[in-house]
């Protein structure tokens, strides 16, 4: 960060910080956490903050003092936030003015906005303290929660080594560089946001943040892309398709003219999206289809999309540098070209494990020839050119708008209400429907129960109550 003191680091509408200013506020918060809250290296610090300068300052400060960053979504209901806090055993949550009320009085909170507004907060603080903080490559950098088939979310632990090597691999293939102006698209429930924030600022790029709700306000989003001359954008295919269709209908495609690198991840890259991108012809822009579960650190495979050659299927491509992919059959034997099998991922990105769940970690990983692999549960096929193609799941896990969902987690939530049996299904690739067996509950009650226990993306669009399933 100190290599570019006067360069613009982050900006949100009319608020901005140079690298020098950003680093100053990060140091202030870091020292406050060390001295006033006595945070230790390796301690898990949760953060529940909307998109803001404070959000990025908080993330970087947690990392600077050797603590473990754990994002909590401001969109989650209070019951779920408290359950996740209990799972992490975190004693401190960083918040700001918009999220303070998400927690009750028994939880220790610190308002990050005080760092930006209180000039006296650094009195008697010694900045040289930060040089004595010890962080090793094998220390845990962050925890990200994913949906759990047992009904309990899983806390994925990612080491500093995992994150740094993943960033090196993405930089090596030229997806993003220090000269990029990057737009921050991902919610904090996606691990992509760690790359967008920490990754961009580690290499000296400029990060443009959208105000809350900005990713779906397409007029605002297109204005930001144009005025801020965005060169790097990373989001899910469904959002890309909706946004690009909006621009095409509005005859506003010139807002994309600055893009150098467009990355898609989190869902299959549809033929419809490929055709749309081909029709709008973004000049001088490389389009990347990336793939990777949280357990292998953000991205594991890559494919430089060729809109003409990929008209029938868009591959997830090849392993990133320093990653390894293996395809196995139902008997755990390697399989050959043009056969479907489960994808195993090894290499530098394989996670440390699920926090507090060594049993789940043991079931999710396997050692082959002294190398540790994560068993993704994703079915893939390798074509004759050595490119991987995504074919679906071997279990009941689904993706909805890029979010990974275990239907069992929703079903377990419903069974905690006045429901004797239930099944949740995904329809038309864009919504969930819950079929429930009950004689004394209606759709309104079921929806309210789910809204108080589940994040918004996991709440079924429709509840069908039956006397018997």
Automatic annotation (TrEMBL):
InterPro entries attached here? Answer: AMP-bd_C_sf, AMP-binding_CS, AMP-dep_synth/lig_dom, ANL_N_sf
Q: What highest taxon heads this organism's lineage?
A: Eukaryota
- Which residue range or ranges hold the AMP-dependent synthetase/ligase domain? 3-354
One MF term in the entry's GO annotations: phosphopantetheine binding
Gene Ontology cellular component terms for the protein in this record: cytoplasm
Any Pfam family matching the protein? AMP-binding
GO biological process: one example = secondary metabolite biosynthetic process
Q: Mind telling me what this protein is named?
A: AMP-dependent synthetase/ligase domain-containing protein
